[in-house]
Amino acid sequence: MIMKRLLIAALAAASLALGLAPAEAASSSRVQVGRLACDVDPGIGFIIGSSKDMTCWFHRANARPERYHGNISKLGLDIGITARTHIEWLVFAATRSRYTRHALAGTYVGASAEATLGVGLGANWLVGGFHRSYALQPLSIQAQAGLDYSIALAGLTLR
Prior knowledge:
The chain is mainly beta. The chain is about 15% helix and about 60% strand. The protein contains 2 helices and 7 strands.
């Protein structure tokens, strides 16, 4: 219960730090620009955090996929071992401005929660990128194998 309250407080603080009011974050003014598919390396949660490398492909209509390399880090309760994980995000832009190639490169912050007992699922909420103008779908689809429980603040870097 305490961890849940801390996570809610951290999410509120992250939203304010990013200049996103709750109504703005859910606004229909955001425009979906594509889908980000990532394969995350296997790893171990070290109780208070973890860091895993990843390779991603950004897919958008009528364009060649873009490859990104990155790292996803967690700070909070993160206990266990996971095999290679696959995460899918819908990518939204803050405005209708024209997307430029490799514009997703940058740092994203938010929260992450996952549970795995053999096979598991997770959710990630991240905002950031070029001038903090991109949001990765509030709840991503994540499939993984292993034995893991995590509820933490998350950071993602794409390059």
